[in-house]
Amino acid sequence: MDKLHFFINYLKYNYLKTNEHGLHSPFVFELYNQVFKKNMSFYSYEIVEDIRSQLLSNPVQIQVTDLGAGSGAGRSNLRSIRQITKTAAKNKKYAQLLFRLADHFQPDTILELGTNVGISTMYLAIARSKSRVITIEGCPEIRKIAQENFKQLQLQNIEPVPGNFDTELPKMLATVNTLDLVFFDGNHRKEATLNYFYQCLEKATGSSVFIFDDIYWSKGMTEAWESIKAHPEVSITLDLFQMGIVFFRTGQVKQHFVLKY
Ligand SMILES: C[S@@+](CC[C@H](N)C(=O)[O-])C[C@H]1O[C@@H](n2cnc3c(N)ncnc32)[C@H](O)[C@@H]1O
Question: Which CATH number applies to 3-44+89-258?
């Protein structure tokens, strides 16, 4: 992570962020109140958080194959399950936002780039049991842990795909008509992120939602985020600092919001 870049942008975000009073778009105003501000607890949260607790107390070490930038856990290839979960899995606040976004938009096809131990995958899958949740992970040992978690929760709607995004994404895209929700959460490099975005864009519709993690992780990631915002097919974007959310709504003026979350 580029710490200076991250810190400067964090200050900017804090200066620019707005709550519902600064939202002039009815779509974003409604989304903010119905999804972002919703702080009631769901039973599903407890089930996934129980699994997170088990993982966070698991000292077993596994061999990690790192195919991307941004694991944040140092250079060693041998890492404990506890350490992997602590450093790579989305925290409760943002993982539960993913759940509420999937619950709100009811996507039929969800794609996740970066399963890791499956925390965000489980939140997405549990939000809508009828959705098809395709999740790609390059590290075989980490993927094994995720699959044990999916089995424990008896989640039938997850399709784990082994391999590198670079080779698996094009093959996977050939099997779907549309992508309703995509969570880009692996290989935090500018060129890779833009490449995955352009490929997924081919399957986007006016109601798709694309979510990018770690948009201020490095200069490259912020440049990728700026290019995505500027893309002519993108209408509304929401900057939450930790994540950027993109909509392709037709007949909508291009607008960018920095949201307090
Ligand atoms: C930040 S973690 C994902 C965390 C997960 N989405 C969550 O919030 O629970 C990113 C994952 O992407 C995987 N990854 C990174 N680059 C990859 C690539 N090029 N191909 C396949 N997997 C990759 C890593 O092995 C890692 O497990």
Answer: 3.40.50.150
Q: pLDDT tens-digit profile of 48-90?
A: 999 999 999 999 999 999 887 755 544 558 999 999 999 999 9
Sole residue written with tokens 């912020």: 222
Question: Are residues 150 and 158 in contact, defined by beta-carbon separation less than 8 angstroms?
Answer: yes
Question: Measured in angstroms, how far is the CA atom of residue 71 from the centroid of ligand 1?
Answer: 8
Would you state the pLDDT for residue 166? 97
Average pLDDT of the chain?
94
Task: Find, among 72, 12, 25, 16, the residue nearest to 222 by Cα.
Answer: 12
How far is the C-alpha of 149 from the C-alpha of 146, rounded, in Å? 5
Instruction: Determine how β-strand 158-162 pairs with β-strand 132-137.
Output: parallel
Euclidean distance between CA atoms 207 and 221, whole angstroms: 25
pLDDT at 186 over 50: yes
- Our answer on whether the CB atom of 88 is closer than 6 Å to any ligand 1 atom is yes
Q: What is this structure's pTM?
A: 0.96
Q: At what angle do helices 43-56 and 140-152 cross, to 10 degrees?
A: 140
- Inform me whether the pLDDT recorded for 24 exceeds 70: yes
137 Cβ inside 6 Å of ligand 1: yes
Domain ranges of the chain: 3-44+89-258
pLDDT of residue 75: 53
Q: What is the residue-wise DSSP string for 203-260?
A: T--TT-EEEEE-TTSSHHHHHHHHHHHH-TT--EEEE-SSEEEEE--TT---EEEEB-
Q: Which residues, in sequence order, are bridge partners of residue 110?
A: 133, 181
203 Cβ closer than 6 Å to some ligand 1 atom? no
